[in-house]
Amino acid sequence: MSEWVYHLSVSWMATVVFLVTAIITWLIHATVTRLAVDQRARAFKAVTPALLPPLGIVYALLVAFLSAQVWNDSQRATVEVSREASALRTVDLLAATFPPDFATRLHELLSRYVTHTADEEWPAMASQGVTLAVAPAPLSEALRLSLAAVPTTDGQRVAQREMVVALEQALDARRQRIIISRSSINGVKWAGLIGVAIVVLIAIAMVQCDNKPAAATAMGLFATAVAISVVLIASHARPFTGQISIGPGLLREIVR
Questions:
Q1: Where are the alpha helices (DSSP H) in 9-99?
Q2: Cβ proximity of 162 and 95 under 8 Å
Q3: Domain limits, the chain
Q4: Helix 10-35 with 212-236: angle, nearest 10 deg
Q5: pLDDT in tens, 30-49
């Protein structure tokens, strides 16, 4: 599927998908009807209607397969964003056990990281343009600052250890978030789903070739189901892209 489709709002995506589906369905109906004359008509009618249920099951299995991938990616993305926000919040709270200068500096680094992530990294994730090649400077500096702190009490020693662990968790959650943002349904899977849908539409048109209204009705119903399933999958295919996407709201709450 074209890249620009993923960035459309759900309403526009549905409009495009339904329009394309309607055009393809009409072309199949018109072509089969035009070819269904004389011997070809008898050949088309020889196609048994019992072929339709297995084809429908194959299409349903493909939809279930792609839906499972989409829902899994979406759930994982939500978990990783929550884990990253929780880890950063833990660091901010534990920093209060140290002198004010240290806590202020650490909070400033976390604020810079959240601002950079929300304003620059998030839009780049929407276009799958973020890589793991460069670690975020504010978070790396926060980790170095935590390791360099000199605790004077047992409470500060425990806090220092927990802050380092939390920062490592935040870095790991960020890595997982970026990996998930680059996940998508590849062209082969989309081609398989659309190809099977076209095969089913052709089979319906052939079985009902002697009854144009019945063929149009049956094809229209199945084409509507196809369009709905494609919109549902495409609108959720990328967790950080499109109208239905995961935003940086949880991270922004940390620095408010």
A1: 10-35, 38-45, 52-94
A2: no
A3: 3-254
A4: 150
A5: 999 888 887 878 888 787 88
Q: What tokens does 86 get? A: 């929780």
> How buried is residue 141: exposed, middle or buried, by Cβ count under 10 Å (0-12/13-18/19+)?
middle
Q: What is the rounded average pLDDT of the residues 1-7?
A: 81
Chain-centroid distance, C-alpha 109:
30
Q: Enter the pTM of the model.
A: 0.84
CA distance 250 to 84: 9
Residue with tokens 């299995």: 61
The Cβ of residue 3 has, within 10 Å, a number of other Cβ atoms equal to: 10
Quote the CA–CA distance of 241 and 233 in Å, as a whole number: 13
Burial class (CB in 10 A: 0-12, 13-18, 19+), 152: exposed
Retrieve residue 158's tokens.
Answer: 């425990």
Distances (CA, A) of 30 to 149, 150, 178, 198, 201: 76, 79, 46, 14, 12
Count CB atoms within 10 A of the CB of residue 103.
16
- The rounded Cα 27 to chain-centroid distance in angstroms is 31
CB 200 within 8 A of CB 52: yes
